[in-house]
Every structure is written in C-alpha cells, then in structure tokens.
Amino acid sequence: MRIRIIRAVLCLAGWWCDAAAASASDAAYATAPELLLFDEAVVTAASKHPQLVSEAPSSVTIITQDDIRRFGYRTLAEALQSVPGFYGSYDRNYDYVGVRGFLRPGDYNDRILLLVNGHTYNNDIYQQAHLGNDFGIDLEAVERIEVIPGPGSALYGGNAMFAVINVITATGTELPGIRPLVETGSFGRKRGQVTAGRQFGEQADLFASGSVLDLDGQHSLYYPEYDSPETHNGSAIDADAQRVLKLYVRGRYGEWALQGGANRYEKHLPTGVYDTTFNDPRTKTVDERWFSELAYTRDVSPSVSLAGRAFYDGMRYDGTYIYGSGEDETKNKDTADSHWVGGELRAAWYAPYDNQVTVGTEYTYHPAADQGNFDIGGDTYLDEDHSFSTIGVYAQDEWQVVPTLALVGGVRYDRFYDRLDRFSPRAAAVWSPTEQTRIKLLYGSAFRPPNQQEQYYAYDAEGIANLANSDLKSEVIDTYEVALEHQLPRGARARASFYHYEINDLIEQTEVPPPNDSVVSAVQYQNSASARANGVELQLRVPLPRSASLHSAYAFQDAQAAGGARLSNSPKHLGTLGLLLPLPAEIDAGLEVRVVGPRRTRSGERVDTAVVPNLTLNRHTPIRGLDVSASVYNFLNQSYSDPVGSEFLQEKIEQDCITFRVQVMYAF
Asked: Which residues face 277 on adjacent strands?
C-alpha cells in the first residue's frame, strides 16, 4: 500500500511538471485573459478586514463559486476536501471534516469555527459546525469560501483551533436576476432551488436563496456486524432518507447590512446507532438552525472606521430512537433547544508609521440551553436547563516595518461560563525577499471550551451511567508554522507549509468508577488526553491555455497521541488533483481525484486507502440563460469506508458507490 501511495504522489508530481512544461511552450499563455484566471484573491477573515491572500498572516485557500460549479461540489464538506490537509468522514447522519490529521470520533466539527459573512454559525450546545446538507445555505448562493487553517482564537475566541472557515454569500449586485434550478440524481434525489437578486441604485441591494431537497437514500445498505436473522441479515431497507429545507436572505442599504436564514435537516439512520433497533426507518434526527444579524459600518475619519453588529441565533435538535419491537418497543427522544443573542463592536485605525490596529469586543448571552432525554410515555433520563454568557476582548496590530517586511501581533481574552478564562496570542512575520515570494513565520494559540453536552449530559439507565462534569477545562492548542508562497512564471502559484502543533487537556469520554452499587458501568467526559503533530502541505495551481487550469495538493501529517500512538481516523497521506478543461460543443469539464491514505479505526483496525474520482460537465446551451450540468461521483465505483465513533457497533461505515447528479438552471 505504501508503494501505491508513493507511486500516486510521483504521478501527481509528474503531472505538475508535464503541465508546467507544456504550458511554458504554449504561446497562448501570453494572452491577457489566461493570466487573469489566477488573479490574486482578497480574504477578509484572516485579519477581520480585506487584504490580499499573499499579505495575510496565514496560509489562505479560497474556493470560488466557479470552483463550486465546475467541480460539482454538493456540500460545504465536499468543497473543503479540496484544501490541503483537509479530509472528510460520513457516518450516514452528519458530515465531518478533519484538518491536519485530527478528527476525533463524535467531535461534531467543534474544533473548526464556521462563519457566514463573519457571523459565527457553530451552535451553542454541541458547538457543531454544520458542513453537510445540514449547512443552512445553498452553495449556489455562495460567492466564495475563505479557508484559514491554523489557530484563530486571537481574533475569534473559542473553537477556532484548526481552522476558520468564512462562507461569503453573493449579493444582489453580484448575482442579479432570478435563477431557478431543478435537480435529480441517484437514490431518488429530487431538489429545487432558486436565487433572486436585485440592485436598487448605488446604495442598496437584496439577495435571497431557498431550496427543497428530498432524497430517498440507498434502498438497501448491508452491515456485516448485523448479519443474523434477528437483525434482517444485516440489510437496512429504505432507512436512509433525508429531507432538507433552506432559506437565506441578505440585504444592504447604505452603511447598514442585514442577513438571516433558517433551515431544517431531517435524516433517517440506517446504521443501528446507539444500539437502536436495526432496520427500523423511524430512527432519525431533525436539526434546525436559524439566525439573523444587523450590521453597521462607518468611516468616521480617513484613518478610523467603526463596525458594529447585533444578532439573534437559535437551534433545535430532535432525535427519535427506536428500541425493541412489538410490545417491548420503546420510543426514546433525545432533544436540545437553545437560542442566544449578542453583539460585537470593532474599530480599525490606520495608525502612523504604517500600523493598522484592530480592536474589538464581543458578547453573547444564552438564556436557556436545554437538553433532554426521555421515553415517550415512560421514564425521563435527562432534563437540563442552563444559562450562560461569553465575553471576549481582542486587539491586533499589523506593522509594515519596511516594504518587504510586515509584523503582526495580537491577543484576545475570553471568559466562558463565569469560570473559564483564556488569553489567546498570535504572532506573525511576512517577509517578501522578492516580488514573487512570500515567507510567513506563524505562531498562534487557540482553545475550545467544553460544550454543554460534555458538561451536563448525564443519565442512568439499566446500570449504565453517563456522569456530568461541570469542572471541565478548555482544550488548548499551540501551532507553529512556516509557509512559503511563490509566484511562478506564466501565472502559476506554489505554496509549501511546514507545521507543528501540540494539544493539551483534550476532552474525551473516559471510563470511571461507578458512583454507586446500582451502576455497572460509568463514563464521563474528562480532560484526559493530549496530542501532537508534524506535517507538510504542498499546493500548486497552474493556469493552462483556453481557460483550463490545474490544481494539485499533497499533505503529509503525522498526528500522535501521548506516548506516540497514532491517532484514529488520521491519514498520514492526502492528495488532490483537479483539472478544469474546455471540451468541444462548448462543454466545460471538471475532473477531481482525491486520495486519502490508510487510517485506523477506534480499535486499531486498518481502513484502506480511498481513491475517489469525480467528474462534472457543464454546458451553456444555445437557449439564452439555460445551463445544464451533469456530475458523476466516484465514477470508478471504488469501495471505501470511513471510521466512526463508539456509538456504532460498526468500526467503519462503507461510503456510496458510483452516483450521479443532473441540474438544469435558467437565469432571467
């Protein structure tokens, strides 16, 4: 297997070289339109203000709307897996994304901070970042995705341990008109989506997006762990459906901006998770998320600008779990419900001597974070209701010492739950030895406070107990990184990053002594683990003639627990190769191949390398405004699996075989 991985890496490197050599000899490279393909992008989330990607104190990747459309990404999780060091996992309920070799079972993406135009989208009970179909905004409504790997707590506070992901939505100015879309595909996929945008003079615009997805799921899913007559011989029949509703609105009037959205994600669970009755399609989860935000920005002088925002958010989770059958059947409900309000004030000062200072404060209040678990018509196991608040204060200075050297320093103080205090520093040096080269020295510390479930989810049923722990501390990560970015001839760009991180006080579920004689087995979340990693990330983007392009990435990541044991669900090797190519008949092709190296399950079982090729074809038809798109995912029909957590009897869950999607969109 190692030989196959090395061979794949060499093939990637050879493809890079062949593409570069071919492009260098092509006279079409001299034309201006080709060079515009990779004009340098602007990022806002790296420092809370717009700046060129090369000047940002981090290794930024931008995923554009053009990338989303041409590669046929269906979810945010799929798009993120094109970023160096990012990989995915799916357990037939939620999509998870690992970064730099770290993806713990059951972490709900809570070590990634997800933003929508700078608004925090993680919920407040599980700190979950929704990255699959449960993300509340259609990708057709996304203008770009800013991915800032590494710690981000110096500006954003909790959860920004491994990455800050900022989803920038389109505006009525950027995407005017009405664009309805219909879609079909494998497993009874039916989707309707529409965007509408309009500009009102120079001062105002309005944009909206909404969709409905109805997916029957696989008719039959086989799990050998359940292969017995009592459990339907391991086959789950018609138990994989999902239903999704999404609505998002964004508007602007002068210096005021408004955004808000709501979504509902219903997923039926075919896996027998949490020891539920296998092959009962009534076991399901429903997740709802809503938010609204009003923001105001004003330049009070040529050197000072002020920004403020106020927001209201909410979430609801409703899990239905079926146990037993017939007269012994029990329907268990697992619930969470919360809403919160807050605001942020921020000032930017273009100070003397080429300093740019950013200061701000942020506050949230959570009046009722509820968790419950009960049997319908029976016992109640959990009924917890807690209120809490968070406050953060931050400052950052970006100093252009000389034209070729910039220094960045910042720190943020956060207080959670009236008991946890944390200072998160950041430092960076961005040196430009030549006009084409940037060398970035980066350091940052970040943290994740314990979430509500880890602190208060307690139950005692049939001799098994989960104990609360309100004394949990925050997880802390320190990351050191050196990044080299270079502008190659003919518009190509290369990047190499070398990093080391250490995590302390990791929160994990641990077996503990039973609290009394009636309890046979007990577990509790504790700060009981640590981890460290070293890694290398390489990326190359090459514009080719006739609006074609090539991107490729490779990541080596060695993530270990204390004592040197390799982390579960942590591949050492990741590779991505993408090619955008115009074909005859005005067809645009997007080919992407993703390679995820071997991983280990929670018990150490090996999960083989996954090689997943996807192909998307787009065509602007002769009918004005009518576009057609067709995608084939895993078109070589590779069989591969993802590791899953201890809530499953299975160690790994097999992923979808070859699937397809067809879209028809009309713009007017």
From this structure: none
CA 295 centroid distance within chain: 24
Q: What are phi and psi of 559, to 5 degrees?
A: -105, 125
Do residues 424 and 411 make contact, with C-beta atoms less than 8 angstroms apart?
Answer: yes
**How many whole angstroms separate alpha carbon 514 and alpha carbon 524?**
10
Q: What is the CATH number of the domain that holds 27?
A: 2.40.170
pLDDT at 224: 96
Tokens of 479: 């990351």
Are 162 and 150 a contacting pair, CB within 8 Å? Answer: yes
Listed residue (623, 613, 638, 604) closest to 668, CA to CA: 623
The 8-class DSSP code of residue 565 comes to P
Tokens found for residue 600:
């280990």
Half-sphere exposure of 244 (CA within 13 A, CB side): 24
Segment (H or E) for 34: helix 32-35
In a domain, 213, yes or no: yes
H/E run at residue 8: helix 2-24
> In terms of pTM, does the model score above 0.85?
yes
Alpha carbons 71 and 590: distance in angstroms, whole number: 5
| CB within 8 Å of 107: residues ≥ 6 apart | 96
Residue 30 confidence (pLDDT): 33
DSSP track, 411-426: EEEEEETTTEEEEEEE
Q: Is residue 137 part of a domain?
A: yes
What would the mean pLDDT of 98-107 be, rounded to a whole number? 90
Task: Give the pLDDT confidence score for residue 581 in this predicted structure.
Answer: 94
Cα(611)–Cα(638) distance, integer angstroms: 7
CA 476 to chain centre: 20
Structural domain includes residue 253: yes
DSSP letter at 567? P
Q: Domain containing 549: what range? A: 2-346+545-666
Task: Give the CA count within 13 Å in the CB-facing half-sphere of 478.
Answer: 7
pLDDT of residue 448: 97
CA distance 129 to 98: 12
What span, in angstroms and rounded, lies between the C-alpha atoms of 567 and 532?
A: 10
Burial of 44 from C-beta contacts in 10 A (0-12 / 13-18 / 19+):
middle
Residue 389 has pLDDT above 60, yes or no: yes
pLDDT at residue 519 in the model? 83
Euclidean distance between the first and final Cα of the chain, in Å?
52
> How far is Cα of residue 355 from the mean position of the Cα atoms in its chain?
33
d(CA 577, CA 594): 7
| Distinct helix (H) and strand (E) counts, the chain | 6, 39
The contacts of residue 113 (CB under 8 Å, 6+ apart) are 120, 122, 129, 152, 156, 158, 159, 160, 163, 164, 165
Say whether pLDDT at 446 is over 80.
yes
Number of domains in the chain: 1
Q: What is the distance between the alpha carbons of residues 490 and 201, in angstroms, rounded to a whole number?
A: 39
What lies within 8 Å, CB to CB, of 287 at 6+ separation is: 130, 134, 264, 265, 315, 316, 317
Q: Is there a contact between 137 and 209 (Cβ–Cβ < 8 Å)?
A: yes
Distance of CA 516 to the CA centre of its chain: 41
Give the pLDDT confidence of 539-570 residue by residue, as tens digits: 999 999 888 999 999 999 999 998 899 999 99
